[in-house]
Amino acid sequence: MMLFERGSLKVRTLKENDKYLLAKWLSDPLVLEFYEGRDNPFTVQKVMDKFFPLEADEVKCIIEFEHKAIGYIQFYQLDDETKNVYGYGDEITYGTDQFIGEVDHWNKGIGTLLVTSMVQFLLDHKKAYRVVMDPQVRNERAIRCYEKCGFKKVKLLPKRELHEGIYQDCWLIEYGV
Fold first, then answer.
1. Is residue 96 part of a domain?
2. Number of separate domains in the chain
3. What pLDDT is attached to residue 131?
4. What Pfam family is a match, any one (predicted)?
5. Across residues 168-177, what is the average pLDDT?
6. Residue 107, number of CB atoms within 10 A of its CB
């Protein structure tokens, strides 16, 4: 099912056949440097275990650009426990995670187009009050992209994510209305 389209960018829900694309992308060391870890490559079976069956609280999607699947994005409404950790109230807050798996599509503005389009979709169709992400502090390229899209650093989350055997600090960043 198509969620939205903006120019040459399309975001559609995940299909079972996408498991082969995800396994390809999630076994590329360049992609794994910031997403999942180079010590954690994915097989098709591992993709099936992690991404399927689809869960009601996460919407998992494939990113297409110029009719070619190039990446993955998911979004979810934050639960009360996570909102408490972040210091948020009852407002509708969504989180997203994404990566462009086709590395030849990096540094071409597609990430900026994707993030701004997803934020607009969440504001318009899910009535989000804010959208948040928690990239690793060392992922400077992604953070620059998110800041171009209007996200602001809110809080440092020390030792938030286990990545390649080391707990990494992350930034809580938000886009608020």
1. yes
2. 1
3. 98
4. Acetyltransf_8
5. 93
6. 11
CATH code assigned at 42:
3.40.630.30
Coil, strand or helix: which one is 119?
Answer: helix
ω before 53 within 30° of 0 (cis)?
yes
pLDDT single digits (tens) 54-72:
777 899 999 999 999 999 9
pLDDT tens digits for range 95-137: 999 999 999 999 999 999 999 999 999 999 999 999 999 999 9
149 falls within a domain: no
Rounded to 5 degrees, φ, ψ at 18 are: -70, -10
DSSP state of 129: S
d(CA 73, CA 59): 8
Q: What is the number of alpha carbons within 13 Å of residue 114 lying toward its C-beta?
A: 29
Instruction: Please state, in angstroms and rounded to a whole number, the distance separating the CA atoms of residues 94 and 52.
Output: 21
Give me the domain span that covers residue 67: 2-133
pLDDT exceeds 80 at position 53: no
